[in-house]
Amino acid sequence: METKRLIIVAVGGQGNLLSSRILGEAALLSDVPVRMSEIHGMAQRGGVVESAIVFGDAKSTIISDGEADLLVGFEPLETMRALNRCNAGTTVITSISPLSPFTVTIGRGTYPKLSKIKEMISTKTKKLIAYDAAAVAKEAGSVLSVNVVLLGSLIQTEVLPISADAVKEAIQKRVKPAFVDMNLGAFELGFNAAAGAGK
Question: Is the dihedral of CA 29, 54, 186, 130 positive or negative?
Fold first, then answer.
């Protein structure tokens, strides 16, 4: 099968690692070879968390600059920072709900305008799906489900050889029972949001 390379970037605490594990489980359920690696950085202090996931018959989890078929960003500035991994054929999915870095919070930096971030991404990639995933997550029952909202949007693109049903089954296996229904709802809302948010 054709190899697909996915980068997921988030700020610590946004659930990047859970979303990666759900995707890995869904790939296994679909008989799709999958390899993953994670970079935690200063995650507990609000630093970046990055996952690299390669689907298909690849030998390595390393995704070099320009190699990503997909980029999913839980925070717009982190999405922009990972743009060097993309190319003219990359599909990018990002939440446009900012989490200001420490330097901005203490007045030592300024957060770029969201319109500028979206323009930069659109110029360098094939497709951009950008919307307020945090607001959609709240609609699902908790802002903490933003990771699963964005998974729904990722699957909606049909770039990966993984079905929505496989991801739903993986959610049931990987998420604590008390939160399964909320996360299944978040997945559906994210799936539907992507249909209207693509540019």
Answer: negative
Give the 3-state secondary structure of residue 131: strand
Tens digits of residue pLDDT in 21-73: 999 999 999 999 999 987 755 544 556 788 999 999 888 889 999 999 999 99
Q: Which class for 146: exposed (0-12), middle (13-18), buried (19 or more C-beta within 10 A)?
A: buried
Domain 4-197, CATH number (from 3.40.920.10, 3.90.1100.10, 1.10.3720.10, 3.40.50.970):
3.40.920.10
Provide the token pair at 97. 């709900």
Pair 141, 186: CB distance under 8 Å: yes
Q: Does pTM top 0.70 for this prediction?
A: yes
